[in-house]
Every structure is written in structure tokens, then in C-alpha cells.
Amino acid sequence: MIEINNQESRYARSLIEASLDPLITISIGGKITDMNQAMATITGKTRAELTGTDFFDYFTEPNEARKVYEEVFAKGYVVDYPLTIKDHKLTDVLFNGSVYKDENGNVLGVVVVARDITDQKRIETEMLEAKVFAEIATQIAEDAKNKADIARGVAENAVKSKQQFLSNMSHEIRTPMNAIIGFTKVLLKTNLSDKQQEYLSAIKTSGDALIVLINDILDLAKVDAGKMTFEKIPFKMETSMSAMLHLFETKINEKNLKLITSYDSSIPDVLVGDPVRLHQIIMNLVSNAVKFTSEGAITVSVQKVSEDDKKVGILFAISDTGIGIDESRTDSIFENFQQATSGTSRIYGGTGLGLAIVKQLVEPQGGVITVSSKVGEGSTFSFLLSFDKTDAKVQPESDWQDVDVEVKPLKVLVVEDMPLNQLLMKTVLDDFGFERDIAANGKIAIELLEARVYDIVLMDLQMPVMNGFETTEYIRNTLNSSIPIIALTADVTTVDIDKCKAVGMNDYLAKPIDEKLLYKKIVSLVKKVKNNMTAIAIKRAGKYVNLEYLANRTKSNPEMMMEMISVYLQQTPPLIISMKESLANKDWQALHAAAHKIIPSFSIMGIGEDSENIAKKVQEYAKSQQETEVMSNLIAQLELICVQACKELEEEYNTIKQSKK
Fold it and tell me: Which of 95, 240, 425, 584 is deepest in the core (most CB within 10 A)?
């Protein structure tokens, strides 16, 4: 029996010694009575040295150690009480203790296990530090983002301010220039002496030069604002180039220069691209060539360099025998306000914007522009652009003087506050053979529109009392009129062009007015409106409802058709009432929901996309909580449509019902 006990004792001892955590037995008086090797190791003392010593002296806070020791006797145990052992590295431990007793149940002392949590605490500290650093980094990132947002806001405001400044300056310069150039053109059509013709031509040339300068500045602003856009329309490349180069013939002849053109006949007749921007590029480069060439020739070459099933690559080259550019300046010549030498502007004039704009027109289209030059011998500017191929035909342009009998006589309302521009527009419209009234501001224009019938409105933007934007909004939303409106604007910045579209203007035309373009826009818009009115009249003469879709869906089952018609007749009037009440109460959510519910029924009953689009507009306005007056008009239109549709459906219902008998 004793042998067995000894074996059990040795086994228990081996388990105790195997523990890596210090294990100690302590008497009731707080003296160490026994320990394992881990305790000896952590304190750096032998077992003999530890035995009989005061347990509390081995902790950095003896009072805390005594306190927890007493707590063990009070409760019988203690779990995970944090202490720090006074060793060479101050080991953090969790104190776990319980009393031990003899066979009679008398308490002999305390058994303690001090679990080493140094690594755990280090990890916790590192995690805490990492969390703190992460929070600091997050705060720094947020601060940086806020600063970036502020900087972006400042930059955006700066761009807006620049756009507004350019818009205002454009208006202030273009308004008088419109009158100067316009009346110069009018006078040049009259009988003049040679001297008068010469003087007026000089005035027109100076005016045209100013307009080019304004256009350069505004184009640069568009580039800076990222608002430069490019069209994709079919055009005849050869015809377009020929017409454009014709503009330079007079100037080239005046300087006794020779114009040499080379056009690759293998280029397809019609291509798709942006002819206006192409003209702008060519005109800038040819204008520069003419300006800086005193003798010799200007050569314009257009050659095909690649072609596949979809695209054609074309190389344009404009060469001159002018002053040339120093090799050290060719890299910077395309930068804003850069010219070949400091004296170039003084001798030849110009702002140095032309080539910068050319580059900004070529590269966004995927093109490349290069220059080769030699001082005293001349320069060659080359650019490569790709154009789409097409089978489309380009209609020949008719002259504006070929008055279309289908649109005559037209009644035009001109809304313009400047007396000179009023007189100019009277003169131009008289030449067109159109009737015209003049309104000095938007308020007068609205009064005239309420009293008379006009075919089209030519609207200035900047006016006293009521400007062009306010007037157009009133015409569209209060008068509920769809009369075509063309903005006659001294501003061609994207800011005002976007505003023109937003308020409902159909088109715009920059001052000084191009008479041919004005005529074409007027005729085009009036004919479009007349065609639309004809289509609407045809629709109104017929029925709103077309049950073909419903018949297909129900396989012409009369029971199902009657059931679906019945559901429509039950649900639609309450939805209209709900929309009207929601609008009156400004309950946007309910209005949006009612419009949403009514939309699917239009296609089911074959009522048509126009009605569906009106309901979708109501949804949009309700979502953004915009302009109750606009929504009132839209809901009124929906009510008229639905009332008529319900009448027609009742007739259809009765017809189907009778056919069953």
C-alpha cells in the first residue's frame, strides 16, 4: 500500500514539475512551504533559499499579493488575479489559488499557480498600439481627404468663376460685335463706291479677327473645364476642305503667295467625324501659315495612310515657306500663349493660343500632331486623325435664300433688349421674308405670346426685367407652350449652353449671327414642329386605346380581356385622384407611388409611350420634389388621357360582352 502511495506521489510530483507556470504552496502564515522548478527558475533562487521565505516579497506590489492571499482564505479560491513577479524582467502573471486541507478538513494552506502572461500582455499592448496608430492613421487620412475636398471645392469654384467671367466678357464683347459685323454685312450688300467697299471690308476684317480671338479664349476655357465635345456626323471630306480653303484665297492672293493642294482620290467620299472641329484645326494652321509667310507657297496635303472595314486614317499636312521655327522652340510651340520668338506677337500679331487649341482638338480625338521646321525656310504641321466609314449619303446644302414655301410666311418673335441688335434682326428677318415682332425683355415677350400666335422665338439671354432663361421657363411651364425657341447668345461657353438645354430651349446660335445658319435653324425647327403637330393630330383623330397587345397576351380570351379591362377601370380613376391629392398635400412619396402603379397599365391597354413618359416625368419630379406647377400640368394631361381611355375601354368591354351572347 505504501509502495502504491509512493508511486502516486512521484507521479503527482512529476506532473507538477512538468508545468511551465510557477506553482507554490503557502502556509497559513504566508510562508512558502514548497514549489516547483518553474518558481525557482523565474525568481533565480534555489528551492532551499525559497522555502520558508515570505511569499509576498516576490511581487512588485506586496500589499496586493497579501490582499489576494487573504481573499483565497475568505472565498476558498481566487481566479486570474493580475500580479507582477519581481524577477529580472518583471514577469506578469495571473494568480490562481485555492486552499488545501488535511483529512479532517482543516485548512493547511494555499496552493497557487501563477500563469505567465507576459507574451499575452505584450500582444495586447501591441494590438492596442496598432489600434491607436490605425485610428491616428484614419484620422490623418480623413484630414487629408477633407483638405483634398476643400482644395477640390476651391478649384471647382475657381473654374466656375473663370467660366462666369468668360461668359460675362464674351457677352459684353460679342453684343456690340454682333451689331458691327451684322450691319457691315448688310451694307456690303448695297451699292457702294470702291472706297466705301474698302473701308467696310476693313471693318469686317477687324471684326472677324476679334471674333477669332474671342473664340480662341472660349475654346481654351472649354478645354480647361473638360467640356470640349466632338460630334460624329457624315460629311464630304473633299467638298468640306475645298470650301474651307476657299476662304483663304483672297488673303493668299493679296500676299502674292501660291496655294498648292493635294488630295488623295482614294479617300472615301463620305466619312463620319466632326467637320466643324476639323475646319477649326485646318483654319488655325492655314491661318498661321499665311500669317508667317511673306513669299513662296502654302501647301495643304490630305493623304490616306490606312484603311480597314470600319475606319480610315488620314494624314493632313500644312506646309509653308515662311519664317520657320527654331528647333529649340518646337517642343513648346503648342503650349498656351507660346510663339516662336518674343518678337513674333509684336510683328505678326496674335495671342499664341491657336496652336494650343489645335493640339487640344487633335489629341482628344485620338490623333497626333507634329511639327518640323527650319528657320528661314518654313514649317510643316502634320496631324493624323481617324474617321469612321459609312454608307450614308450627305444631302447637299441649299442656300438660305431658297425660301421654303412650306414654312412661309413665318411669324417670328425676337426677344432682344439692345436697340442696335433689334434693328439688325429686323433687317435680317426682312431679308428672309419673315414677319417679326420685337420684345425688349422677357415680360413683354410673354405678353405678346399670350396675345398672338408665332411660329418661333429668337431669345436673347441677358436682358433686364426678365432674362432669357426665366422667360423660357415661364413659356414651357406656365404657358405650357412647345413653341420652338432659339437662344441668340453672346455666350458660347458650356455653362450657358447647358442652361439653355435645361430650361427647354431647342437650339442656340452664337453672336455675331451667321445669317445662313440662322435661316436653316429656323426652317428646320418650324418644319419639325409642324410634322410633330400633324402626327399628334392623327393620333387624336384615332383612339388612345389599342387592345392588340392585350388580345395577344390573353390569346383573345374574352373572359380574361374583360377581367383585365375591368381591373383597369377600377384602379385608374383612384390613382389619378391619389396623384392630384398627393400633389396638393405635397406628399411626394405617395405621388411617386401612384405614378409608379399607373405606368404598366398604359402598355397593357396599348395607350402608348407618350402617356407612359408623362407618368415617368411625374415620378422624376416627385422624387426630386421639384416644381409643383410643372407636375400639375403633367397630371392634368394624364387625367385627360385616362378619362378618354376609360371611355374607350368601357365601349370595348361592352362590345366583348355583347359578342359572347
Answer: 425
